Every structure is written in C-alpha cells, then in structure tokens.
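[09:14] KT: can someone run the structure on this one? pasting the chain below
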Amino acid sequence: MIQQIEWQVTPSCEGMTLKDFLRSKKVSASLRAAVKRNGGFLSEGRLILPYEKVTAGQRITMPLPEEPPVGVTPQNLPLRIVYESEQVMVLEKPAGMTIHPTMGFSEGTLANAFCGEMKRRGEVRPFRPMNRLDRETSGLVVCAMNTYAAAWLHKQTEKIYYAVVHGVPHPAKGDWNMPIRRCEDSIIKRCCAEDGKPSLTHYRVLYEEADGRCALVECRLETGRTHQIRVHASFFGYPLCGDDLYGAPSGAMQRVALHCGQVAFCEPVTEQAIVVKSPLPEDIRLLLLGFGAKESALIPDFGKALL
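[09:31] RB: done, structure tokens below
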C-alpha cells in the first residue's frame, strides 16, 4: 500500500505556490524530487505543478516513495509503545538493550523488536530513531514512521534526561559547557577537551540527599555528543552512579543511572504539540530509596511522584 501525506491548506498559506507551501511544511528538495519521479503531487486527485498557487481549504496529497528494504531481522520481542500516530511512534527502551544491531549485539535490539512489530502488522517500515540511547540508558526513543516524518522531526525533538549523580551539583541550576572529543587511547570513551566539538548540557537539581551523597538531576541537551551527560557530569565532579567508564562504579546500581524521561515534538502533519513522559524505572527508584529519598518527593513539572 502506498503511504501518503495529506494537508489541507490553511488561510495563512493562501496564494502560496505549491513549492513554497511544501517548503513551509519542511518537505526537502530531495523528497520533492523523489515524489516528482514517482508521479508528482496531487490536489483533489489531479496533478498539481510546483508553481501553481494553492487556495485555502484545498487538499494537497504527497504520495511517499517506496520504502527501502528493512535490512534488520524482524524478531518477536517485547516492545513497549507509549505513543503512536500515523507519523510517529515513541518506544520505551529498557536498560541493557541496544538501539541498533552491532558486532556484539546482532539480535535482541530495539530495531529487531520494531521490525518484528511491523512484520506482525504486515507493514514494511525501516527503523528510524530520532534519538539514540546508550545500551545501559533506559527511556524514551522517538521513531519516525516515514521519510517525511524523519525530516520533520530531525533536530526538533526535545529530550529530558534524569540522572542520579554522586555529590550535589553547585549551583543547583546551570550549564555544563565544555567541548567533547574522543579520547586518543579509546574508540569508546569520550573526554572534555578544548579541541573537541562544542557541547552544552543544561542541568537542574531536582532532589538532593541531606548528607550530599547524591542528587537527582534533570538534564537537557543543546548538543548530542556521544556520552555527553556522562562526560560532562564526570568532568565537573559529579559522575553518574553506576558509571564504570567515567569513574563511579556503584554496587547498588548495575548500570548507568540515566533515564530519558520526557520527549517533546510537534506532529509532522497536524503540527500538534506532543509531550510524552516515562516514570523513573524500578532500579533508579530503588537506588534513590537506598540513598534515603522519600516516597513523597516530587519531580517539578513531571506531573507525578518521583518514586
């Protein structure tokens, strides 16, 4: 079945050429060319040309190009879908699962699970994650369901992470602003260095243990460097609990205490603002309880109890 996107022209777009209308909808030049090669854009069932003007109420249809081969083995694996529309799916990844197959993890990945779900539905859709989580990081992953949605969501999906760190960051709200690059002696580890790529993390302390042993910190990324939160937190003196790679192993935590707990984006076609939230997983909850956190503690703006 051919997938397609359909818009209804609003009064604010009245008089635009089709080309300008498509630009306003973030349809890339490459996608416009691909659609043209496959028959072109339609209006009320007829072909509409790039320099024709659109009118309010007019329906514009974009038949999407055929999807490429999936390239990932579909597997019947547990898959938690927390939000779904025709254009976007938000999944909740457990800690310990990789996003994509790698040399060490050829199966059992989130990509395998997604493709397995599509096969069960009788659909062919490549796995297009808009954010990537390390294997040990839990939380929300936004997936584009087609090429247009991927272009629309690129660089406009906002993520909020929750990390449990050793110590209490000071001040309680601020920025970790330090370039990051790959360490010279490792293909995995990253480090802060003046010759690295610009990297900025906004942080806010949500909860701190009275004796200063740990804190729950909200992190928002302006950039998306590999291990960015882990590297910044460690560099500024507050390594994440359970982070063996960056200097803070913890017997009470068997993985890095990091969770992507909120994502926000606008739906590609309707432009409706969407916010999806995920509560702290059980292992992070128990870690905080072990440090002395109370069940009554709240995450500001999160809408539910911290624990």
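[09:33] KT: thanks! The radius of gyration is 22 Å.
[09:34] RB: yep, looked fine to me
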